[in-house]
Amino acid sequence: MSTVTTSGTWTAITPTPPNVSGLNTGHITWGNPVKGDDKSGYSFTGGTIEAKPNGSEQTLGTFTHQNFPIYGNGVDRFHVDLVVRIRFEEDDRDRDFSFRFHHFETPNDGPTPDDEVDLPTRVSKESVTIDGEEYAAVITGFKRNGEIVNRFLSPENGSNSADIVAVLSRVGAPDVVITTVGHKGKVKYTQADEYVEIVNRGTAHADISGWLLHADDPGQNFTFPPATTLKAGQRIRVYTNEIHPEWGGYSFGSARAIWNDKGDTAHLSDTKGTLVSDYTYGPGPS
Length: 286
Description:
Layout: E1 3-14, E2 27-30, E3 32-33, E4 40-45, E5 48-50, E6 58-67, E7 70-71, E8 77-88, E9 93-104, E10 115-121, E11 123-130, E12 133-144, E13 147-149, E14 152-154, E15 158-170, E16 176-182, E17 195-200, E18 206-207, E19 212-214, E20 221-223, E21 229-230, E22 235-239, E23 250-251, E24 264-269, E25 275-281
Parallel strand pairs: 22-23
Antiparallel strand pairs: 1-5, 1-8, 2-4, 3-7, 4-6, 6-15, 8-9, 9-10, 10-14, 11-12, 12-13, 12-15, 16-17, 17-22, 18-21, 19-20, 19-24, 24-25
């Protein structure tokens, strides 16, 4: 498979905060600094990766938020548009893929001063044809400190970075997989904070109502409730006995640990009982 080189340009910001500079470059800034010349802003740094149209998650580039106290003149929520240019070595051509970031400039003196960045647009509207198949780029999260998350929280007074993780996925189809099992909980005895992580790597939403997530032992089952939709690029978790709304709010509701620390397998089946995905860690169930 050929390699690709990525680069990024920030093309728009709406509604417009004061003192914007750097449009149509890889580094955009905004706001009137509270002190000195430290404005807030985004940058994108690309790199060279393999083009893998097989659902494998890869680093598209590195996102950096320069988060400094600013005066925003009342504009604290806005969208920032990014165009990622990908040069495919195989045919020496550039393709542009567009994404939108949503920014919340939180009050600097509030109880939660970290600024928030999320991705309302995870699937590029542009596509590329590889070996006769049409693919789009799908961002599946921010990778920071080894963990991939849906939303990026950026502490004040510094530059905070995360890799942008993406896949090349067939246009018009969902692709739901189990990505990991967090089997070593920190809650003593019950390990209520264990979880199974599931992501839709496809370009279309997936209706997973009635789908079954289970371990190998009897009674360790979770059924997704009616009207459960996993959006393209969305990542959720099903916890053993905790509720985390930021991850979908799903829980087995089990007072006992479910996932064996020495090894186990998580299974995901659709409403017909067809296995959609499984994930084994360690030597497997014992």
